[in-house]
Amino acid sequence: MTRAYCLQCERPEKSCLCHLVTSVDNDIHIVILQHPLEVKQSKGSVTLLHQSLKNSQVIVGENFTDNIEVQLLLKHYYQQCAVLYPSADAVVLSADSRQITRPKCLFILDGTWKKAYKMFMSNAWLQQLPHFTLANDIVGKYQIRKTTKKNALSSLEACCYALSVLEHQRDGANKYQVLLASFVEFNHFQLSFNPNS
After folding, report:
1. Are 32 and 56 in contact (CB under 8 A)?
2. What CATH number is given for 23-191 in this structure?
3. For position 173, what pLDDT does the model report?
4. Closest CA to 160 of 185, 182, 145, 144
5. What is the pLDDT of residues 59-106, one digit of tens each?
6. Structural domain boundaries of the chain?
7. Model confidence band, residue 152 (pLDDT cutoffs 50, 70, 90)
8. pTM for the whole structure
9. Which of 34, 43, 52, 133 could form a disulfide with 110 if both were Cys (CB 3.0 to 4.6 A apart)?
């Protein structure tokens, strides 16, 4: 017997996460470049992120050099794109970041650290964009996936923290806090299917 799937979040009805989706009107267009092996990953945060951000899209692949969607985005946001990736030249986004030129389009790489590195290295155009990285004192709340990287964040968390800084959201009135709270619930919801994990 085939499993019934939610038409909105495309997950099995039993693990539908539509009740966790919160509508956030982000100013910067978010483009999530998702590694193909992450698409069916039930513990991934991209579905919740994409469904919650009004101004976002997901493009699946590894090498996007000839991807028409990417080429159109680069043309549309000419010289106003950036990538969130901790390269050696990346500018650190922190609460004190006031002089940073805010991009109109931000690329997020979704995959394990190894996959994200491969994606970054396979796409020369990504390396040519301005790079941003987050301050290393952010404590993530990603409980359902393990990594050996210190202070590792989910794609959702990294995106929310980056947008908070780039859009100058004050901590007390930060529109991304609601989505981060939903992410905590998402972790609890996923853990409920395997209480011993």
Report:
1. yes
2. 3.40.1280
3. 61
4. 182
5. 999 999 999 999 999 999 999 999 999 999 999 998 776 678 899 999
6. 23-191
7. confident
8. 0.89
9. 34
Give me 9's structure tokens. Answer: 């979040």
Whether the Cβ atoms of residue 109 and residue 90 lie closer than 8 Å to each other = no
| Contact (Cβ atoms closer than 8 angstroms) between residue 95 and residue 118 | no
